[in-house]
Amino acid sequence: MCKRIKFFMKSEKTFDRIIIIIGLVVMIVIMVPVLFVLAASFSDPEYVLNGEVLLWPKGLTIEAYKRVFENEKIWRGYLNTIIYTILGTTISLTLTILAAYPLSRKRLKGRNVIMLGIIFTMYFSGGMIPEYLLVRDLGMYNSMWALLIPAAISTYNLIVAKTFFENSIPEEVYESASIDGCGNIRTLFSIVLPLSKAIIAVLILYYAVALWNSYYSALIYLRDEMKAPLQIILRNILLIGQTEQMGTNDVGMAEKIKLAESIKYAVIVVSSIPMLVIYPFVQKHFVKGVMVGAIKG
Amino acid sequence: MLLALPVLWYIVFKYVPMYGVQIAFRNYNPADGITKSPWAGLQYFKQFFQSYYCVDVIRNTITLSVFSLIFSFPVPIILALYINEIKNSKFKKAIQNITYMPHFLSVVVVVSMITIFSNKDYGLFNRIIGLFGAEPFDFMASAKAFQPLYIFSGVWQDMGFSAIIYIAALSSVDPQLYEAASIDGATRMQRILHISIPSIMGTILILFIMRIGNIMSVGFEKVLLMQNSLNLSSSEVISTFIYKYGIQNGEFSYSTAVGLFNSVINLILLATANHFSKKATNTSLW
Lengths: 297, 286
Prior knowledge:
The complex is a heterodimer of chains A (297) and B (286). With 297 residues, chain A is mainly alpha-helical. Chain A is 75% helix and 0% strand. Chain A has helices spanning 2-41, 45-49, 63-70, 72-104, 111-123, 128-137, 145-148, 155-168, 171-179, 184-195, 197-213, 216-221, 230-238, 253-296. In chain A, helix 11 runs antiparallel to helix 14. The longest helix of chain A is centred in the last third of the chain and has 44 residues, at 253-296. Chain A starts with a helix and ends with a helix. Residues 244-248 of chain A have low confidence and may be disordered. By secondary structure, chain B is mainly alpha-helical. In chain B, helix 8 crosses helix 10 and helix 10 runs antiparallel to helix 14. Chain B is globular. The mean pLDDT of chain B is 80. The interface between A and B is large, with 84 and 82 residues.
């Protein structure tokens, strides 16, 4: 019996050690690409192109960042994305809550029918072309609204929000509210919303991240480069190689190419920083939100 | 009453396009509008199925999707099981934070990283395989490399975030079950196999069914960014095809027909998967 326990304890310990090793491997695999980009953005391009940079900058320089910050297009893209994200998140948040709250009340007539209609849209849609034609016919083509309105409500988020309302606000609260003479709208604002800080945080996060990183809508619906969000500008620089406009008129051709390389890294870092900075603060809310929505929903 | 606005939104932006889907059956002329455009029946569907690229495009879409499913579906589950077994809570938090992080990078950034790393001369990938003595290889120019690149970068980016659901489900398992099992002498592996996995089976199945419903609609954004003229033979999928012909070339009816075909197959697959799941395990979407 003693031997068995000892073996048991030992296999637990070995297991735990293996766990730590696996964990370290996973962390390395995830982090190396990111660290490389970070290091390369601060390195002299000569070393990067020779393959000498791995995790730490070589030939420390902030030249790439200087060029990035001098670039007008990037600033405009940044500004556009900030506007779109804030505006879009507000619109999406409002519409989602406006839908989730009534749908969470059991006594709503026709509730199941409406829910069915909404869930159906998750699995079947008109497709890219009819949606495109609709946006055009509504006169939203080449306007900011084409980015914010057609994608305003994510059905998944709606279900998460509705489930949250259903599970977190007991019926008694509503009863006492109506006894006190609260109409629907007042109940929403004065009672439900203050109780829902967690889910509002989750919704804001889901929508804001999606909006910040989106490029599909802009690709299809925007023609005017002045309105382009950051991701489109990024795509142009990183994937189509439009680095000529980066004001590198004062250097020779070979230098230009090298500089273009390190600018790529700097641009990646600069555009991802906002989202990466936000996420640690926010990750506990994410977990809670997913727990509520996904398990029950 | 409050519902009015969102419901209107749904009708306008989801159901109206569904009505517009009928242009797949008409010879759509923007000047005439939808209902006045002449009826074309199955002409566009025939056109697609008889085209020389039809087989390639469908094959690419299915293989990309199926392989994606095979490789990227289990990984978050395994990761979640793994994280659930970590005892040190600081380490646990660290792993979770680190693995979530790539999810917050935009698809443009991730594809750019792939492109940079694939570079023949100095890219990270080639440096690593060089360590094993292999010849440098231009990953982005190869049609064969497209699918692995797409799939594994997807795993890299999303495994942490997708694991959250499973982690949450695992955390609601009664610890007494584990205690009872270890008293009975079960090893760690046995506890994982017989307690952890069955408890999240319901979640796994539901997510799996939903995934199947999306088999034919491979993520358009990332594929479009990763495509180039050299890897087109394996990177052209139905969604990028629709984009090219519909939005870039303006062949509205044709591309809508293809899109409709896509949606219908998805629905059929979804219903089938749901049906089997119901029969076998009682878990289902509806």
